[in-house]
Specification:
15 helices, 5-stranded antiparallel beta sheet
């Protein structure tokens, strides 16, 4: 009898289109070879028969910032280690270069090799006019998604860029995202059959309200939320989706956290997702918009801001009713002393770590509290991202797919501590929170990379995923 690499015995496999299937998972040469109860001999046998242990596809985090405060050659290892702890088998880097991609993209791709523990892909941010002329060059290197920061303009255009590989020098610059740049990017992405990601906040509204709040001496996350009001998200989404309709473009609106942002997406879909239009609008939220409000402390500074309890409830409702397509962490690998700034909300850094807590939060607050099913969890954390971003072989446990499999224990309760998350970051907004439901085994392409919170994967096993534009993808992926 042929001996295969791995057998996951008596697994409860979560398949959104079918349900939960009790079967063995046969893995060989990095792929799922069969879902079968037939007898198979394997080099490695994993017993998945425990009552509340389920097999789900490895999570895909479509929204990760790393390589900003430490160079990518180091950040790739620390942050992919954190990903493995959290059951994330594919992470998508938001690359920010205030320089020519023709000059520096290959440098970053080369420095990424040999450092990741999990698989990875890139989005390229459009931060200057010449970047729109370099999008085709990015596509030739396997990047088929481009990020616009509508929030960066004028006096609020300051941002940290990704630093050069093997360097320790932070790169801080100013971006002026003009309406011309927005339209040119969306038009070019549409012509290349690529996706445009959008950070949607109106900079004029935010600039005006931030200036007013600071002059009046306000502080804290409530002041931060008021100074970047949800109206700015609504206006920006309406503006950018109108452009997308004109060009038949595909948009992915990142990190929705307010009721008004949800309203704007729903309105856009009424006009853009019909059979008469080739445009499409996808929506992402983040775990922190499901668990935290502006009543939290300064560690929770993020853009767009944390909102009210009513907004949290509305985001959950949008998840339940399939308005939200994906969950991204918006992970930022920074340190607490950097994060806090001078101690006020205006000087604190925006963003915090989160890649390792996507699945624990969604299992604890979603599945175990009866808000969503395991099938819906898989759609949000894996399947939809694979389809939207063209991650071939990812997103499902199916014959022929990559054997990216996570065993989650719905009964496991654990108090979150920063050190258990294995990131460069030394803090988490979930510090001290008890979450029920954790990944206990992470498998990437048929190899165990995490067992019971301990990373056993090798640095360099993670590979770069070169993607192709929508028009060139296999029918199996997009069906």
């Amino acid at each position: 009898m042929t001996v295969v690499d791995m057998l996951i015995r008596d697994a409860k496999v979560v398949i959104p289109s079918i349900g939960i299937v009790e079967t063995n998972v046969v893995v060989d040469d990095g792929k799922v070879r069969a879902l079968s109860n037939d007898r198979v001999d394997a080099d490695i046998v994993i017993d998945a028969s425990r009552p509340r242990l389920y097999a789900i596809p490895g999570a895909i985090d479509p929204h990760v910032h790393y390589g900003v405060f430490t160079p990518i050659d180091r950040a790739a290892e620390t942050e992919s280690r954190s990903a493995a702890v959290g059951g994330v088998t594919t992470m998508m880097r938001m690359l920010r270069l205030y320089a020519s991609y023709r000059d520096k993209l290959d440098m970053h791709l080369e420095a990424s090799k040999g450092s990741h523990i999990v698989d990875y892909a890139y989005h390229a941010s459009v931060l200057m006019d010449e970047h729109t002329e370099e999008m085709e060059s990015c596509v030739s290197r396997g990047i088929t998604s481009f990020k616009l920061y509508m929030n960066l303009k004028g006096d609020i255009g300051s941002i940290y860029m990704d630093i050069d590989p093997y360097s320790s020098d932070l790169v801080h610059d100013r971006v002026d995202t003009t309406e011309r740049m927005i339209e040119a990017t969306i038009a070019r992405a549409a012509s290349l059959s690529c996706t445009t990601l959008v950070h949607a906040e109106d900079p004029e509204i935010c600039s005006r309200e931030m200036k007013k709040a600071r002059e009046q001496g306000f502080d804290g996350l409530k002041a931060w939320s008021d100074a970047r009001p949800a109206e700015s998200e609504y206006k920006a989404i309406a503006f950018v989706t109108d452009i997308a309709r004109r060009y038949g473009a595909e948009l992915y609106i990142v990190h929705l956290g307010s009721s008004l942002a949800i309203d704007a997406v729903r309105n856009a879909r009424r006009g853009g997702n019909s059979s008469s239009s080739s445009s499409r609008v996808y929506a992402e939220t983040c775990p922190h918009y499901l668990t935290h409000t502006y009543e939290f402390d300064i560690r929770g500074k993020v853009v767009p801001p944390l909102r009210s309890k009513d907004d949290v409830a509305r985001i959950w409702d949008a998840i339940i009713n399939s308005i939200i397509d994906c969950i991204g962490s918006d992970h930022v690998a920074n340190r607490l002393d950097m994060k806090l700034g001078s101690g006020d909300v205006w000087t604190a850094l925006a963003g915090f770590p989160g890649i390792a807590t996507i699945l624990p939060v969604m299992l604890s607050e979603g599945v175990n509290k009866g808000r969503i099913t395991l099938e819906r969890l898989v759609e949000l954390t894996s399947l939809n991202a694979a389809r939207i971003f063209g991650l071939e072989g990812k997103g499902s446990i199916a014959v022929g797919s990559d054997a990216d499999i996570v065993l989650v224990d719905l009964d496991k309760e654990q108090r979150v501590r920063p050190e258990m998350l294995c990131s460069y970051s030394d803090y988490t907004i979930y510090d001290g929170m008890v979450l029920k439901g954790w990944p206990v085994c992470t498998i990437l392409r048929g190899r165990v990379i995490m067992e019971d919170g301990r990373v056993v994967g090798e640095r360099g096993y993670g590979k770069y995923i070169r993607r192709t534009p929508r028009a060139q993808r296999s029918q199996r992926l997009i069906d």
